[in-house]
From TrEMBL:
First-tier enzyme category under EC: transferase
Keywords: Aminotransferase, Pyridoxal phosphate, Transferase
Organism: Planococcus dechangensis
Superkingdom per UniProt: Bacteria
Cofactor: pyridoxal 5'-phosphate
The protein's name in its UniProt record: D-alanine aminotransferase
Entry's family note: Belongs to the class-IV pyridoxal-phosphate-dependent aminotransferase family.
Length: 282
């Protein structure tokens, strides 16, 4: 049996009730987080919880608990479902009310969270994946981890249908990020990635990677780079909570480097692994 987080309580899955007029369904009016669980521990939970509150605040939803209480709920959920290696998905919507675009009054937000066992994609991490350039047609508040994911979903589906693991999104000439990941190129020992502006979601994994680079004295340039520059990088990789540091060895049919994960990418993967085990970040 599975336990679900529902509005501050942990309930049996069959007791979860969602309204037909939940604004999450009708407007995508809400935000979410995915947090990784390693050996029963929530990885970088504080950072994910902070971002959950920040995303909610940006769309003027107030999370009805303190961060500490929320953290404990997620921790209890993981424990009750006996998740060893997996993830927590949690979302908050503006609530359920008669359908009108403007915010409803006196309506409580709806929080739902659940867990899932997930293995690390080790084979992909060792061999690298292929990605393809797709125009980024999303809105201009990509810094919010919004439930509105149509732009992301359409891009990912196109990539999938063409046999690619992920979409490398670009606005005109500028590479922004992936459909559910951040993107990085390495040229002459320097790591390039789009700055954390409104055009990308500033990944928690991204922040860990940039910390690792600083620790190792690897130069990072947080500046936009072009599609053409992406194809000419020595190494390329993507990152997210579930894919960690994932080498990209081909972009739109162009081989990156020699078509295998690059040396620096491997080094970053190893350093990331060390963090998971050490649990340096709470
Ligand atoms: C969640 C997400 C990421 C990755 O963020 P992590 O915190 O590292 O999981 C990157 N881009 C988009 C669009 C996302 O939704």
């Amino acid at each position: 049996m599975e336990w679900i987080l529902s509005n501050g309580e942990i309930v049996k899955e069959q007791d979860l009730e969602i309204s037909k007029e939940d604004r999450g369904y009708q407007f995508g009016d809400g935000i979410y987080e995915v947090i990784r669980v390693y050996e029963g521990d929530l990885f970088t939970a504080t950072e994910h919880i902070d971002r959950f509150y920040q995303s909610a605040e940006k769309i003027r939803i107030t999370v009805p608990y303190t961060k500490d209480v929320f953290h404990k709920m997620l921790h209890d959920l993981v424990e009750m479902n006996s998740i060893d290696n997996g993830q927590v998905y949690v979302q908050i919507t503006r609530g359920a009310a008669e359908r009108n675009h403007q915010f409803p009054v006196n309506v409580e937000p709806v929080v739902v969270g659940y867990t899932k066992s997930v293995e690390r994609p080790v084979a992909f991490m060792e061999q690298g994946v292929k990605a393809t350039l797709i125009e980024d047609v999303r809105w201009l508040r990509c810094d919010i981890k919004s439930l509105n994911l149509l732009g992301n979903v359409m891009a990912k589906q196109q990539a999938y249908e063409e046999g690619y693991f992920e979409a490398v999104l670009h606005r005109g000439d500028t590479v922004t990020e992936g459909s559910s990941s951040n993107m990085y190129g390495i040229k002459d020992g320097v790591v390039y990635t789009h700055p954390a502006t409104n055009l990308i979601l500033n990944g928690i994994t991204r922040r860990v990677i940039l910390e690792i680079c600083e620790e190792f004295g690897i130069k990072v340039v947080e500046e936009p780079f072009t599609k053409q520059q992406a194809l000419e990088m020595d190494e390329f990789f993507m990152s997210s909570t579930t894919t960690e540091v994932m080498p990209v060895v081909e972009i739109s049919g162009h081989t990156i480097g020699n078509g295998t994960p690059g040396k620096m990418t491997r080094k970053l993967q190893q350093a990331f692994e060390a963090r998971i085990k050490l649990g340096v970040i709470s």
